[in-house]
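Progress note, project year one: complex with S-adenosyl-L-homocysteine.
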Amino acid sequence: MTSQRARDRLAVQLREMGIRSARVLEVIRSTPRHLFVEEALASRAYENTALPIGLGQTISQPYVVALMTEAILADQPLDRVLEIGGGCGYHSAVLSQVAKRVFTVERIAALASNLRERFHALGIHNVRVRHGDGAAGWPRHAPYDAIVVTAAPMGIPTGLLEQLAPGGRLVIPVGERGRQQLLLVTRTATGFAEERLDWVSFVPMLEGVG
Ligand code: SAH
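Model obtained:
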């Protein structure tokens, strides 16, 4: 159930659903999602579904992780990527394979400290974790080549736009629970260009820390 075959099957399914990037499919194939969920759910880790990770939060559906990752891949390699909503760390682990450095902000203290332990245990050394409210981004390491938001606000936080490098891409679910649109915002020479990617379902982005 947690075998390479299960991961290969998931990658085939994602390709059938429209994920075209060979790089992204390869990363999905090489990331052990079962190590990011509770043991009782490990047998379901390679189903294309969101799963609970405790404290009312969920690990995103693999298709959505793949779609968001594909959306930020550019011709040149990604140097710095910011993730908002670290959760269980699966998406960060995926990003750590397509970017030189990943910064993730998580508002729930217990999840943030689990993330540090998990990355250490898995030998993932290019992800830095911050416990805080991600609506403000992480200005210290800005600008970012890409920002990936995995909790849905009602509108795009302006602080995140400001932390995008020129040509940088922000992928973010926006809207009420149950009817969110996944947006891709690109910083251009003159402003920002916006594209709608899909309808998605994320947990809400909450204010402050927990
Ligand atoms: N990328 C994660 C998805 C986790 S679900 C994964 O692969 O597991 C979304 C996460 O966003 C939750 O852990 C939630 O606590 C966090 N979150 C919600 N609002 C936030 C905010 N304002 N700042 C930082 N994290 C936030």
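Strands lie at 51-54, 57-59, 78-84, 99-106, 127-131, 144-149, 164-174, 180-187, 192-200.
The first strand starts at residue 51 and ends at 54.
No further modelling is planned for this target in the current period.
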